[in-house]
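Worked example 2:
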Amino acid sequence: MEIPPTIRDPLLEWVDCLLRSADPEEVLREAAAALGSPGHAVALGLWLPDSEGTCLRLVIGTGALAAAAGILERPLSGEPSCGAVWSYHSGRPSIETFDAPAMPAVRLNLPLRAREDGEPIGVLTAEGSPALRTAEAQQRLLLLARWLAGLLSVGASGSAGPLMARLNRLALMVNEEMALEPLLHHIVRELVELLRGDRGAIALMAEGGDHLVVVAEHNPAGTPSGLGVRIPIAGNPSMEWILRERRPLAIPDVRDAILGPVGPALEALGIRSLLIIPLVVGERVIGTIGVDSVGRPRVFTEAEQHLAQVVAAQVAGAVERARLLAEAQRRAAHLEVLHTVLREATAAPDLNALMERALTQLRAALKAPMGAIWLPGHAVVHGLSMETRRQITEAVRTAGLVFQGPIAVNDWHALPMDHPMQPLQPVIAGVGIRASVTVPIGRAEAPLGGLSLAVPEPRVWGPEEIALMEAVGRELGAVMERLQLLERLRAQTERLHILYQTARALAHGEEVFELLEQALGEIRAHLEADAVSVYGRDAAGSGLRLMVTQGFSPIPRVELGEAARTITGRVGATGEALWVEDCTAYPYPPETRAIIEREGFRTHAALPLRHQGEILGVLHVLWRRPRALDPEIRDLLQSLADLLATGIHRAQLLERARQEAAERAALNRALGEALRLREEMIQNVSHELRTPLTVAMGYLELLAEGVLGPLNAAQREAVEVSRGRLQELHRYVELLLTMQMARAAGEGRRQPLDLADLVREAARRLQARLDPARHSLQVEVPKEPVWMVGDPEELACAIGEVLDNAVKFSPAGGRIGIALAVGEGEILLRVWDEGIGIPPEHLPRVGEPFYQVEGGTTRRFSGMGIGLAAVRAILEAHGGAFHIRPRSPRGTEVLLRLPLHRDPEPQTSPPDPDPRG
């Protein structure tokens, strides 16, 4: 069919616009869309013979033929089974009519031949509305068929060669799960053979975008390999043209000026002509394919360029998919590392194990054979020898480097002289490290340690890699801070426990030796000390005698003036504490050195026992293993020494008081002093406990609320148990202080108050806590006010303590009662229970500080014996009295007597809070 001149130019313009994509499938889609009309779609299909020539197969289809592409085939032997087979054999177009759902449709088959008289290559089929019968539609299809025939005949050597088989093979390669590098080598070989070139190469754009790097080649011509060669962009007109136009550039002669400085290099390789095809993704050129002619000039035809574009489009897609996949895999690996650290950091029972796993995963994700994580007291190092670690550590220490932000070195051999890491350059480069990156662990302003990765070759560290390491560093820092906080809390709790137990032993002891035995036993047990001893002044005051020792046998007596012969005499004379973390290196006096070496002690603390400026003795605490005497342990030992000094002084006063029993006045003075010291000791102990107790409870509240980071189940349980124990200890301390304040307080906080209202409030609070299945509460309070003058906080504490005591000693099912009444000029408050009662012989002492009916560690009910003592102190401070008596048939009754306020009250009910009425 000839193309009439009147429509030739518009048709050529349409085909030229259509063929810009150089992708046969896309060309057919665009052509089908252009040939169709509203309501009348057109489908196009390309039929090609299989490699054996036995059947005709539909290889590309659009519209209604798309689903049959790759599946539909017709035999070429025998009678023609369809119009496409007839047109393939006859070389002439055929038209078929068939019934479509809406209207009769037309199928037009156009044969594809390499030349007018050449062998058949394939068939172009168009089916759709009867509009395909028009001359314009058929002429457009004819031009399209000729372009396809020219494209398919490239490389056919005068016959319909295996072009489509090569294209299909290339398409299959691109879609196979093959590594990118071997895929590119296969593709460049196929394209060189397809275009009958001598050699070829594929170059990809470098990350910086200023040059390309040759990553694959096919070089049967035997010219030198170009793998790894960098192709500059700046000053290279050919590459600038490719980036701007994004279409093939055929260069018949490498001496062409468009090649710029690259031309002489190509000419030196024997290359005469070349075709450069860009790899385009969207609007970006991500690389090029080059096909070269060696030794002879060559002109690459437009059809060959179109064919190369088809291959380049597939290669560009494959490269982009490979890059996206690699990026996704890299990001997934990064997220997996961070996820693992975050997941395991929540529990983090073992910081070393967490550091080991984090470093292993980081090295794998970032492909670094060497790495290290270091924190105070912890270090994990991979890929470096012990000697290398020592050299680097010494160099960092000598240079005084502090890593407060990420420091990346891309090449230690090319490190600028003004770089902050320059002092380490000789050592780092000398151990085989070429590139490294270090980030701080924890907060940048106060780093706890560092995290480093290193490689033996130059490397540019990307922002994502550094960001991943920083995230891991922050999480490791949070874990370290959380574990340090828990350790401090445990130490603080232990310190409070030791102080409490020592204070308890001192408070209960009467004989000085018994007192010291119990106190030193607590110190030795809770500090895990191997030996302890206490020296006290002898009667003459000229020397120190051994009072109590546990774990070793020291010198029985030393003179205070013999500081050069014994450490005990030196500390007792000067009053200065001695802290020795390594006994083997300390210059002990000879007698003390003999004991230290004989017993094998490694750590030693000796403290003066000072009370009100007077040195009463010396405390020794010793360990047979090395131990750090940090500020916390020193503060604890100093507090224990103060308690012991107070206890020794108290015991000495009591001993002297017993010796002077014949002289009543002297005995009373001694007892008064002893009691004063006892109260002073209790107050000192209470205040000593109160501050660290408040701090510890505050930290536990922060932990329980999750402010300091998430806790696992075991950590939450430990925090809750610690909170309960500290709250119990807090109650005891507050009772001690309340008792002291009640005894010392004057009239400053006294005010008129309604005692009936206080009793009702106390009963309401108790009722809210009671388990109805275990206890019932009976309340008898008059409706009218019961006025008195007093401290409402202290009285509320006393009422609450008596009620709590009744609940504590009441069995399940027991009743508890409280009754308020006004008697002859006084107020009577009775609280009773149906509990176990109190043996009559103990009644006189109930209410004394620290006295308990059941003492010792085997008692059934916990407590310190200060609750009722505080109640008695409050009642007596208000001019009242406290009585306890048995109740029939069982139980106990507590009677509180308080003075009634006799001044008339102007109000019989609380005032209205609103002054307007």
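The chain is about 45% helix and 20% strand. Confidence is low (pLDDT under 50) at residues 1-12, 155-162, 855-861, 904-917.
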